[in-house]
Amino acid sequence: MDVAAPQPSNAHRNERAGMAEKIRQRYWIGAGLAVVLVVVFFVSRQLTEDRIPVHAAVVTRSTLRSTSSTNGLVEPVRNYAFYSPLATSVTRIAVNEGDKVKAGQLLMQLDAVNAEARVAAATSGLRNAESSLDALRNGGSMADQQRLESNLQRARLNLQQAESEYKALSMLETTGAAAPSEVAAAKQREMLATEALNALKQRKTKPYSSIELQRAEAAVRDAQAALDAARSVLAQTTVIAPVSGTVYAVNVGRSDYVDEGKLLLQMADLSHERVRAYFDEPDIGRLAVGQPIRIVWDARPGAEWHGHITQLPSTIVSYGTRNVGEVLISVDDPQDGLLPDTHVTVTVTTSSEANVLTVPREALHSESGKPYVFRIVDGRLVHAPVTTGTINLTDAAILSGLHEGDLVATGSLTDVALEDNDAVKVVR
């Protein structure tokens, strides 16, 4: 006969449930304590870990321009420099530096006595050459023609006499009164007389060879060129303004003796000037016609002029210790106060990007030719590859890899090299 198992009482069941609840509470308390210990461990580790002091910058949006600066020399677009055409003296200076003059106005007068003597000598030389050429074309001078006519008459008489002798001896030879040798000699004299007469006739119709005529014609051309040169020198002894403009340099004084080639005076239209700038060889590849230029002159603090590149260098030249290319810059602003031959500083904008993300240039690093930065996230460095755009002396454009507001390290305040996951402390 089966006996029923005894059933637990309610009190017993409540006791067991209470014990299970206490076990669960102890478990959760233990788990919570473990979590707290872990958090405390990592926090204390982070607080006690050495942090590298760094400078940092926020990624922002701005317009980024790349520029390059160098020195330049102001010069007129069309400059007029006058030099002494010969060794002489200055007799008159009609203008002063800074004077505005009109086209055709007298600027300076040189002593022209020697120049006038050269013109006279050259004129005489031309007349002699022309006379010689005319004589050749007309059979020579009058005396030459008279001598030629006299020789012709004599040659005709000689020929007539030779013909008569030959005829007489030929008749005597038929009767045996003259030897054949005498007849042959007479015939020879007749032939020589004929040749002599023909030569004189040829001389009369064409007295000189083509080579002699060519030499005479060349002599006339040389004499004409000498006269033109002498007249040009004489004209240059009177210095006249070729255009309206400003006299900006007078290089000699009244009564000064000047050598041939001495610079006397310079003038130009100062409303049209340009700058010849000297860019270092590595910068030339970034230059282009039309790029904007800013011009400043130390003698005029606060003033600036603007222009643009009109001509790139065609070669590299030595400029002191530098290898440079000469770039021509047109000045777009009114050039009041910008004097010729003054040394200025020019700055060219080689590129410009608007509304781009930018970081300080010192934030950029490179590994195997690929740029990257260190973002600062929760006090640690994070290696972040980036794509760069325009880079100037201070900033770099970031095309990808960062977002506006990101914080990037720009450099360590210690000698420790920055590495990925380094703990850092930003120093303002």
Query: What is the CA–CA distance across the termini?
Result: 93 Å
Mean pLDDT, to the nearest integer, reads: 87
CATH fourth-tier homologous superfamily of the largest domain: Efflux pump adaptor protein, beta barrel domain
Strand order of the largest sheet: 2-11-15-13-12-16
* Number of helical stretches of at least 4 residues: 6
The largest sheet, given as strand count, sense and whether it forms a barrel, is: 6 strands, antiparallel, barrel
Overall number of strands? 23
Strand content: 25-35%
**Approximately how much helix is present in the residues?**
25-40%
Overall structural class, as computed from helix and strand content, comes to alpha+beta
Query: H/E order of the elements?
Result: HEEEEEEHHHHEEEEEHEEEEEEEEEEEE
What is the CATH topology descriptor of the largest domain?
Answer: Elongation Factor Tu (Ef-tu), domain 3
- Provide the domain count: 3
The whole-angstrom Rg is 53 Å
- CATH architecture identity of the largest domain: Beta Barrel
